[in-house]
Amino acid sequence: MAYFIKNKHYFAKNAPQCRPSRNDSLVKSKEELLNGLDEASNQNSSWTQALLANIVLLPQQIPPSQLQQISPAALAYLGDAIYELYVRMFYLLPLQRPETYHRLVVAQVKAETQALHLRSLTPHLRETELEIVRRGRNAATGRPKRVDPGIYQQATSLETLIGYLYLTDYQRLTDLLQILHLEQQ
User: Fold this and answer.
1) What is the set of domains in the chain, with CATH numbers?
2) Contact, 176 vs 117, CB < 8 A?
């Protein structure tokens, strides 16, 4: 170990050069965003928008014929992950303790809150999106014992819509997520 410390300049000069990855620019932009922590809470919205813009999308588009073959349950599975990621990013700033992050995120991703979010988004949805919501509602099968079946169906519908829009129209997904009113604390 002492040899490494003594000769750290040798290792630094002779270490193999790594090519920059495509994520290097993402890290840089996120670090730049972190420098503005002390600004007003409306920055939280711009932080969320910037992070959403930097999410790595699928490397290729799924053809519409294959997209129609994806079950509503599979779309809900994907939508659940995307929605939770969005909520986690929303609460990332201001910096907090992990327990606080967990409490805030759980309050937003529970079925009751998702059902409320779906109801608030419904007036903004297009006909095709309403059809996806209907398919998701009908696909909701098993449910936790503590949740009313109607609430669970609505939560699954929201997740199905989010999964579908993630695959088909990411800008529209971003626009709809910005409409949601997540609790600040």
Assistant:
1) 2-179 (1.10.1520.10)
2) no
Positive or negative: CA dihedral 43, 47, 48, 53:
positive
Q: Which of 24, 38, 80, 175 is catalytic?
A: 80
**What one-character DSSP code corresponds to residue 61?**
P
| Measured distance CA(21)–CA(26) in Å, rounded | 10
**Global pTM?**
0.69
* Whole-number Å distance between alpha carbons of 89 and 185: 14
> Residue 135: which of 74, 58, 64 has the closest Cα?
74
Would you call 169 a catalytic residue per the annotation? no
Express each pLDDT in 23-65 by its tens digit: 444 344 444 434 443 443 445 556 555 655 555 555 467 888 8
User: Residues 120-163: pLDDT tens digits?
Assistant: 999 999 999 999 999 999 887 776 788 899 999 999 999 999 99
